[in-house]
Amino acid sequence: xxxxxxxxxxxxTQSGLVKSVDDISFSIKRGETLGLVGESGCGKTTTGRTxxxxxxxxSGKIIFQGHDIAKLSQSEMLPFRKKIQMIFQDPYASLNxxxxxxxxxxxxxxIHKIPKSQHKxxxxxxxxxxxxxxxxxxxxxxxxxxxxRQRIGIARALAVExxxxxxxxxxxxxxxxxxxxxxxxxxxxxxxxxxTYLFIAHDLSVVKHISDRVAVMYLGxxxxxxxxxxxxxxxxxxxxxxxxxxxxxxxxxxxxxKSRIILQGEIPSPINPPSGCKFHTxxxxxxxxxxxxxxxxxxxxxxxxxxxHFVL
Length: 312
Fold this sequence. Notes:
Helices cover 32% and strands 23% of the residues. It is α/β, with parallel strands linked by helices. Helix 3 packs parallel to helix 5 (146-158) and helix 4 (119-129) crosses helix 5.
């Protein structure tokens, strides 16, 4: 469904050039969920926003269903926006406080010129799909909890019957008890509606639950890509290993036996990243070659890719 090739998105700031997305490539199959994980500031959200053209890419291809949308103008993007929608991270900031829930959900229908006669029936169906009542349609965002607001955001994303949804950390601003409800609902919606997801998150336990494959980002680069099962059972990149070692385990006995990999040093500035492998300043296995040449993302087994000089 989606093929991203050599995608770049740079930002010019007063301090210098920030390479938020720096030459990344990946694909997503129809009906699949690709998880995109990494620390804050690694470029996950910028990747999602560039794919949907909220940010204009500097270079690279974004091939959606056989069409390269990277070079399209905003007016030419309109038919594709009906097929690609986004669920935003912050349910408190992403809803217009002056509009009712019903108006928020119906707004995409107006933009895409869906006949007004269909709005009411679609609204009722969407509210039911996301676990809200019809009476909620007349309420304003401040009258809802965080979880309910995110349900409204999900209903808005589904309003024009998209095929591909970018989920930008959709549960990170919610209580843990609500996170599970939203993730389970997204899985149910995927099965019912045949959706394809790019699921962006920093919580690896959430990503493991929902994703078929997982890509790990560090300073604008994808450094490891594998099936969810293989990435969690046999991580190859030192950074991925350190991330997974930090995931809490609910069983105290197992948690005590688990060894934590503590990375040394601070995350480098994206304005002045290290030469060669961007991770070498914090890598416990770094060698002189790591400083001099940047490793390419290469295939190490059938469905496993890694960007490290010393992974066999």
